[in-house]
Amino acid sequence: MIFMDLTYHTEKSMSTPKNSLVLVHQNIGGIISKIEDLQEFFCNGKIYPHILCFSEYHMSRDDVHFFGIENYVLWSNFSRSTFQKGGVCIYIRNDVFFNYFDFSKYGKENTLEICAVQIVTTEERMIVMCEYRSPSGDFNHFLRLLDMALLSLNKPSIEIPICGDFNVDNLLSCHHKQKLSLLLGAYNMMHTVGISNLKPSHRVNIFST
Question: What domains can you pick out in the chain, each with its CATH number?
Answer without folding.
Answer: 2-208 (3.60.10.10)
